[in-house]
Amino acid sequence: MTADLFEAVPDVRPSREAMADGAVLLRGFARPVESDLLAALREIVAQAPFRHMFTPGGHQMSVAMTNCGNFGWVTDRGGYRYDGVDPDTAKPWPAMPLVFRELALRAAAAGGFDGFVPDACLINRYEPGARMSLHQDKDENDFGAPIVSVSLGLPAIFMFGGIRRSDRPRRFRLEHADIAVWGGPSRLFFHGVAPLADGEHAVLGRQRVNLTFRKAR
Ligand code: SIN
Ligand code: FE2
Hints:
Layout: E1 16-20, E2 23-26, H1 34-47, E3 64-69, E4 72-76, E5 79-83, E6 85-86, E7 91-92, H2 98-110, E8 120-126, E9 132-135, E10 147-153, E11 156-160, E12 170-174, E13 179-182, E14 191-193, E15 208-214
Antiparallel strand pairs: 1-2, 2-13, 3-8, 4-5, 6-7, 8-15, 9-14, 10-13, 10-15, 11-12, 11-14
């Protein structure tokens, strides 16, 4: 037995965990590119700042959002849609960085979905207390492509249900650099995020940022 066995606290979580048929959690998958991701994120947010959008029903969302890629997901009194232009800046969304695209492609493949080429990346910022209620991702044209969802910063409880809103969701703790991938039989499953617990993340501070990659068109 050597001393180095005791030097680091091992990550005892399994590296992958099935959430449902077609849905998997890839623990720590983003770690190797973490600093490049964060540098690219800072540039995106400088061009397209986070904002709290309004739902069609007139409620302001607790999660702040922005986008990168050819299309961005937006919501306002007119409804939910993908738009090539940022309504706040009237400019196209920032381009999707290569490090984002490559990570999404590799994570999708690890989840069993080869050839994933996202054209939209919704970026969600949760501060303590922010939450996302159960919903389906269904504003995309092609449900053949999966959803790839990267967690950064504070841990969150991800709720992953079934095809019906009434299906009881299972709860998964998502930590910094974890990636969830769902597609195929679970592509339209309801999911959401419980109110974010307060805390301080070593790199991101008092927030969680989530990158959600989709093929919108
Ligand atoms: C979403 O469904 O858009 C967000 C999921 C998450 O923040 O983990
Ligand atoms: Fe979603």
